Amino acid sequence: MKKFFSMLLALVMLLALAGCGGDTKAPAQDQGGSSDAGQTDQGGEPADTGDAADVGDYHIGIVTGSVSQSEDDRRGAEAFQAKYGEDKVTLAIYPDNFTEELETTIQTIVNMSDDPLMKAVIVNQSIPGTTEAFRQIKERRPDILCIAGEAHEDLPEIGSAADLVCNNDFVSRGYLIIRTAHELGADTFVHISFPRHMAYETMSRRVAVMREACKEFNMEFVLETAPDPTSDVGIPGAQAYILENVPAWVQKYGENAAYFCTNDAHTEPLLKQLVEYGGYFIEADLPSPLMGYPGALGLDLTEEAGDFEKILAKVESALVEKGAADRFGTWAYSYGYTLSAGLAEHAKNVIEGKCEITDMDAVAEALNVYSPKAQWNGAGYTNATTGVKSDNVFLIYQDTYIMGDPGHFMGNADVEIPEKYYTVS
C-alpha cells in the first residue's frame, strides 16, 4: 500500500500552484513517507493562500458530538468558526446517545441543507446515521460537499455517500502502537472495548492487527470488556467501571502491561488509575494531549487553551512530577481538533476553487494549518476482502510522542509497516 505525506519542501510551492492554484506554505506530501508540517505561525493561522475564486457568499456547517462525548472534535469546530465568523460557519451537535436517537442524529445533519447558502457539511465523528444523512442531503442539494471525519460506519458504505472520508489509519496504528509498547518495555497489551465498537470494521481489523503484532513482538494480548457509554449506564457508569477495575487489572497483568481503550469517555479514568497504579498508555484511540489527561491529572489549561505546544508541555510536566515519565504517550496535536478544523479548511479551499476534494496533498495542507509542527503519514483505504482501493477514503496518523524528561517522538511516521498487516482481518 502506497503512502502519502512526504514531498520534499523544495517541491511544495510547485505542487501547491499546480494542484490548488494557491500560494500556501505548508508542505505537500505524497504516498512515500512523512512530512514536517510547519509553515504556520504559533497561533495556527495559515499562510496566505492567494485570491479565492469569486464564488459569492457561502456557508460551511460542522456537526460534532458534545463536549462530554468528544470535546476535541467540538473545540476544533469552534476554532474554525471563531476564525471565519458565525455568519459563515454553522455548528451543530448530534445527541450523546446517538445509537438510540438515530432519527434525531440524521435530521440534525440533514437540517444543515436547509440553508440555501450552505456549500459544505462536515461531520466529525461520523457516527451511525451519517451515511443516510449524506444521501438525503445529496438528493436535496447535490451542490453541497459532504465530508466525513472518523466514520463509525463501514468505510465503503459511507464512502459511497460522502465526497470525502478521512479516518485514523487503524491498520498502521494497530501495528505501531504494539511496536511502540514493545520498545518501551511492555510485555502485555490490554485492549478495552465493547460489542458495538467491535462490530465496526475499522476497530475489529485494528484488533486483529494488534493481536498479530503482539505475536511478532512476543507480547501477551488480552481483551477486556467495559460498558458502552451510550448504554443505560451512561458515561458515569462506564467511567466508574474503569476506575473500579484498573487496580485489579494492574495486579493481574503487572506494571509492564500497556493499555488501550476504544472510547473517549473511558480514557480519563483509565489514565487516572494507570498513573496511580502503574502501566503504559501509548496513545488514545483518537489521540490528543487533551484526551483524558487534563481530568486525570487535575490540570487547569485555561491559559494554554488553543496552544497545543504549551498544553503538551504542561501535561508532560505533570506526568514527570507523578513519576510516570516514559510510560504515557499521545499525538502532539489533537486528532479530533485538527480533523474538525482541517476538514472544514479543506472544504473552504475546494469551494473557492483552490483544489479538488480528493487531492490528498491539499487535505494534508489543510490539516497542517492546525498542526503546524506535526509529522503525518497514512494511506488510501483498501478493502481487505475485495482488495479494492477507494479514491475518496483516506487513512492518516501522526507520529507518537512519549512524555518524559525529556520527552521524545518515536519516529513512527517513518516506520515501514510490514506488508502482511494490510491483509489481516
Which helices and strands occur, and which strands form pairs?
Layout lengths: L11 H8 L15 E2 L22 E6 L2 H18 L4 E5 L8 H9 L7 E9 L3 H11 L4 E7 L3 H5 L4 E5 L1 H15 L3 E6 L1 H4 L2 H16 L3 E6 L8 H20 L3 E5 L2 H14 L15 H5 L10 H14 L6 E3 L4 H17 L8 H10 L5 E8 L6 E10 L2 E3 L4 E2 L16
Parallel strand pairs: 2-3, 2-4, 4-5, 5-6, 6-12, 7-8, 7-9
Antiparallel strand pairs: 1-11, 10-13, 11-12, 13-14
Helix pairs in contact: 2-13, 3-4, 6-8, 9-10, 13-14
Account of the 3D structure:
With 425 residues, the chain is an alpha/beta fold. The protein is 39% helix and 18% strand. The chain contains 14 helices and 14 strands. It is globular and about 60 Å long.
